[in-house]
Amino acid sequence: MKLIISTIVLLAAIYIGYKFMFRKPSKLPELDLQKWWGAGVRTEGQDDSIRPFKIDFNDSMIADLRQRLKNRRRFTKPLEGTQAQYGMNTDYLETILNYWANDYNFKERAELLNAFPHFKTKIQGLDLHFIHVKPKVDDNKKVLPLLMLHGWPSSSKEFAKVIPILTAPKRGYDIVFEVIAVDLPGYGYSEGTNKKGLNPVQMAIIMRNLMFRIGFTKFYIQGGDWGSQVATHMATLFPENILGYHCNMPVSSRPISYVKLLIGSLFPRLTDPVAHSRVYPLKKYFSYIMRESGYFHIQATKPDTVGVGLTDSPSGLAAYLMEKMAMCSNSEQLDKPHGGLANLDLNDVLDTVTIMWANECVVTATRLYAESFFYPEINILQDIPTEVPMAALKFLYEVVYQPDWIIRDKFPNLVRSTVIDYGGHFAALHTPKEFADDIFAAAEAFIEFHKKEK
Q1: Model pTM?
Q2: 50-453 maps to which CATH number?
Q3: Annotation marks residue 369 as catalytic
């Protein structure tokens, strides 16, 4: 009986896949490349200057935060025999909150971030914050502009450990990077919108216009999490501007890809001899998705409701953000009180939470989930293959995994794929050396690809 069912499923999947395979991809949608996202309506004479900016954890914010942390209500104790299986372990949380209130050095952490040059500029009505680091090298090094895009619940701070590596000469390479690490709209120190529809496609347009403002019409991009979605849409919409795309959460969302995922479950070792156990058997994979995706559904449907508590309570904000950062760093450590958080430097984690708290941006950041499923341009672009050369970096505990034969549905010019048997979702914080090393190697592969194309 099992063989009969498997055969029926296989034949159905092959038929559906055949239908999708020979279906013509959609044309690019017509989009307003200067759509206004600022308050009110567009007016003449908009400021297009690029202004220096400095991060400041000011005294009044720190005093208010510490008071709220010290006056927090008593937490419910974990159930006997549980660690992080029910979410954030409140005994462990108490330790972190005490550290945040008493020992976390706000001023020192801000100054560490201010070691980079920070800027702001208005793009389509929104004031965007970005880090821009130019390498100090002689003329025998080729400087490559690289736009770096983070995800939720992050900011440009996520790249603080890799920027020094990317902007310094590396043995064996004649290239180095000029890094632009941006806060997505509504995240970090970038302004959010009061208008509906600011989805990853629209953010892709904003990011392209930002790079034009800075002075680059051709550049490389790097992205993970929501940053990978924004970067994917950039590569699809503007292939003439994107020289290469490095991704540490590579995903194809084409319909054919889901069919192939099902087919692969019948022959996992053939379709992915290297890391098939990361996605197969599908029963185990779907159980993991169901266990960990509750936050996703809440944020995609009622972000403003959950945002009330997170905006008002630093304890609640820390617990909510850190629980997801923990699981995404190691999903197999729910039997530990930290639930995976110990894989990250605690100061890095608290930097992320502090930036979210100081800017009161958890709602504007979280709304991206709600804006990402109900606009036709998203589905249209997801189903259009892009010819931009792409490099995939796959860490062990990344939240989503796809084999290369599926990634190529969206990125036929997959020039490099790296599978690493450790590390997680916040790769730039967790494994900065491996992350930066792969970007250097990917850039060389992109350059070689374009040489062959010519």
Answers
A1: 0.93
A2: 3.40.50.1820
A3: yes
